[in-house]
Amino acid sequence: MTVMSDQAARVTCIGLANVDVIASVDESFITGHHIARKASTLLDAGTTGSILSKLGNPAFYPGGCAANTACGLAGLDIEATFVGKTGDDIYAKIFRQGFKNESVCFTTPPFTQKMTSTCLTLVTPDKDRSFAFCTDTAGWYLSPADLPDLPGRPDQYVYLESNTAKMPTGGPDNVLDAAVEKYGNTGIKIIVNLNDRAIVQSAKPVLTGLLKKDIAFFIGNIDEVYALFDTTDEKTALARALETGRNFAITDGPNGVSIVSGGKIIHLPAIPVDDSLIVNTVGAGDQFAAGFIAGLAWGLDVTDACQTGIETATNIIQEVSARPLKSGART
């Protein structure tokens, strides 16, 4: 589905600036290094380096949930800006190079005291992915002072990763709360992506507090919503989401997407894809968000916007990168 508007909406995407190190591994590699399956594992710098040295022929891609979504939005002709911190090193160059052909604005100055953040993205034979990362890196030092001033217009969107609830590292205030305080009640539509089960669990006080705020939409997969509402039952999770009065777009891979909005729950099926065409699921949630937000920006209703997100997610799982490939990977 392609819909164009006369005036491009602007989306400011705020989150972790990191380089994805993508490698295929077997199940024993995951268990042997104590990596959580289909989730994120926090490591120290030494362990991260040790695992990195054991990966066979990894590919390096500029990544990060919000950055990937910004590139997906740009590919859909939506004007996008990314706000995040890099260091001043080779990984920073890889990260910034990723925006060069994507028409994404990125002007945040580097945080030179730390190296650029990396995320080990380990793809198992089932084509799913597990993540490992270290937070003592530049991306986690984004602060409320880095948030840009934005015009309070109805065509403005701010898209936030739940990771921002943990930024800056060691800081007294967090970027997620600061952004909601800064942009809330201004006419700007705020969208929060839960983006990781482990982050949801560790940042739950911040995220549950946002359920009482003026958030336009929460986006997340079913495991992240389970973590948010302390359940492992889908019906219970959807019911609890409905009880909040907030809007949710909840993805569940091949099982489709559930929309919680307007006092009701709507389910949309996934687009069938032959297993032989699926490269991996890296970036599926990021590109669902890009398509969904683009649909909202085009003025589509929630169901049609969600369908656009399903289409963009379906496309990305047939590519190796977490964003539509234009500039290629560094291998």
Report on this structure:
It is built from 11 helices and 14 strands. The two termini are 33 Å apart. It is globular. Residues 1-8 and 327-331 have low confidence and may be disordered. α8 (222-229) crosses α9 (234-244) and α10 runs antiparallel to α11. It has helices spanning 27-32, 45-54, 65-75, 90-97, 175-183, 197-202, 204-210, 222-229, 234-244, 284-298, 302-316; strands at residues 10-14, 18-24, 40-42, 59-63, 79-83, 104-105, 117-123, 129-133, 156-161, 189-193, 217-221, 248-251, 257-261, 264-268. Helix content is 32%, strand content 21%. The strands form 2 sheets. A 9-stranded mixed β-sheet has the order 6-5-1-9-10-11-12-13-14, sandwiched between helices. It has a 5-stranded mixed β-sheet with strand order 3-8-7-2-4. With 331 residues, it is of the alpha/beta class.
**pLDDT average, as an integer?**
91
Which structural category fits the helices and strands? alpha/beta
Secondary-structure element string: EEHEHEHEHEEEEHEHHEHHEEEHH
Please compute the radius of gyration using only Cα atoms: 18 Å
Shape descriptor: globular
Helix content: 25-40%
Strand content: 15-25%
Low-confidence runs: 1-8, 327-331
Biggest β-sheet: count, sense, barrel? 9 strands, mixed
Number of strands: 14
Distance between the termini: 33 Å
Sheet with most strands: strand arrangement: 6-5-1-9-10-11-12-13-14
